[in-house]
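FIELD: query
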Amino acid sequence: MEMHDAKRIEIIIERVMEKRLTAVLTDAGVTGFSVLPVSGGSGRSGKWTRDGQIGRADGMSAVVCLIAPDKLDTLLAAIFPVLDRHIGVVNITDAKILRAERF
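FIELD: result
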């Protein structure tokens, strides 16, 4: 089977910003993504759980998508305004995918 290069983008963001972020992803040409609840973690402000409050949000969400490598810079430019003033972490890793036509 032929494997194709892709970028996996994982964004941890305040749940209150989830719909705005996914709208930006769609507008930027991302054809698919997954949204997962984040039950807790630790950051520069210390440990937290979904039961506690983080800023004005009701917890955090993880948004994960796979894109073609040549779309990365455009996507990052599109999502930066959403993340600029909110809690958010972006992780980008290299990935291999089987069906490139889906991305």
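FIELD: remark
Residues 72-83 form the longest helix (12 residues).
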